[in-house]
Each structure stands twice: as structure tokens, then as C-alpha cells.
């Protein structure tokens, strides 16, 4: 595991966990608009921006990325980020419910408050995340629903270890609320960046005129992707 020099939960700060699936499998819903190579590049760039935001956010003491992708791991090694491998079965395939199993493993044994932040939030900055963490610190369990209201972009726990159960996947917002007793933090980030994940071509088009992270903006300006983005009316080159 890549450890964070000088960081840790001993100071009472937040541990933030960012799950990143193998990039060859990432963003499949963008397939009707982007080829695999562009989807991979965009997913890696968004994850890089999210990780850098988490590292830069006041109150965050440790950041972990859960991934089995070698490119993502290589990028994480350049940052003060811990790497947690995805659990796999005997054949080397993702095991059972891979996302929640990986998150459960990454959360296990973490003292202090812990949160999960998804890797596809290109508009998220340290200021927005700090506001969300301030709101989350008031509740044993809280979430940020995605902009559609069905999914979850962030989940936080400040209570006992046994109550820290990730419920990501289809319909996760309702499950976090009904089964986990989470409090929704809908208004914690007035900009809405904390809930605007990018899953579909429509989400990419919605970035027009909005400020995104430096890595994401650079990918959207590459010739292969910018031509497709331009034809779809996308001009997401502003850097937050």
C-alpha cells in the first residue's frame, strides 16, 4: 500500500476513499458518444481531479483510492494517496459485489470520520468539498444524492464502525436513506458540483460553460475528443 507521509487519522481529520473501477470498464454509458480510448482518458482525468481536490481540502487527513487499474495506481503514487486493491476471486475477477466489498475493506479499521467520494465529479473543488464535510460532521451518516436523485456521489460516516455500511449501486440514494438512516446533504454545496457526476453523453454536454478540473479540461481539449465534443455542443475548457 502506498502510505501518506505525514498524514493519518490520528489528528482526527477525515479519511476520504475514492473508488475507481478498471478504466477499461469505466463509463460504459458513454459508449454511444465516445470510443473506448476517449472514455478511458476521460475517466482517468476526472479521477485525477477528484483525488487532487480531496488531498487539497482542509480537514482531510488521508485519501485512499480503491482501484485495480495500473494507470490509476501509477497516478496515485504521484500524490499523497494510499492505494487499496479491489478484492478479486481465485480467477482474478472482481469478487461478488466488488464496489461495496472494496469500500468496506477500505473503511475497515479507519478511526475518525470517513467518507466515500466518487471519481466522476469534474466540477468538484476543495471549497465545495469542505462545505460538504462541514455539514457531514453534524450527522452519524449522510449522503450527497446525484443530480438525478437516484444515485449517490458521496457518503459519510462519523458514527461507530459497525454502522459504516456502503450501499452504492443502482438506487443507492434510497437505500442509504431507508436502510442506513442517512441524512441527505442536498443543500451543503450551493454550486451543485458535489452532485453532478458524469455518466452519460448528456452529462458531458451539460459541462458546457462550467469550470472543471485541470486534467479533465485538458482531455476535453485533445483533438480526438474535442472534435466529438464540439459536434455535440460541448466547450468545457474552463479550468476551476
From TrEMBL:
Concerning InterPro entries, the annotation shows: CofC, Nucleotide-diphossugar_trans
Q: Which family does it belong to?
A: Belongs to the CofC family.
User: Under which pathway is this protein filed?
Assistant: Cofactor biosynthesis; coenzyme F420 biosynthesis
Q: Which residues form a coiled coil?
A: none
Q: What class of enzyme is it?
A: transferase
Tell me which Gene3D superfamilies the record gives: Spore Coat Polysaccharide Biosynthesis Protein SpsA, Chain A
Q: Which NCBIfam families match?
A: F420_cofC (TIGR03552)
What is its biological role?
A: Guanylyltransferase that catalyzes the activation of phosphoenolpyruvate (PEP) as enolpyruvoyl-2-diphospho-5'-guanosine, via the condensation of PEP with GTP. It is involved in the biosynthesis of coenzyme F420, a hydride carrier cofactor.
Q: Annotated Gene Ontology MF terms?
A: nucleotidyltransferase activity
List ligand-binding residues for phosphoenolpyruvate: 152, 169, 172
Asked if the keyword DNA damage belongs to this entry, the reply reads no
Q: Which gene encodes it?
A: cofC
**Name this polypeptide is given:** Phosphoenolpyruvate guanylyltransferase
Q: State the EC number(s).
A: 2.7.7.105
Region (Disordered) location: 167-201
Supply the alphabetized keyword list. Answer: GTP-binding, Nucleotide-binding, Nucleotidyltransferase, Transferase
Output the Pfam families linked to this UniProt entry: CofC
SUPFAM superfamilies attached to this UniProt entry: Nucleotide-diphospho-sugar transferases (SSF53448)
Does Transferase appear among the keywords? yes
* Reactions it catalyzes: phosphoenolpyruvate + GTP + H(+) = enolpyruvoyl-2-diphospho-5'-guanosine + diphosphate
On the tree of life, the source organism's domain of life is Bacteria
Organism, scientific name: Dietzia cercidiphylli
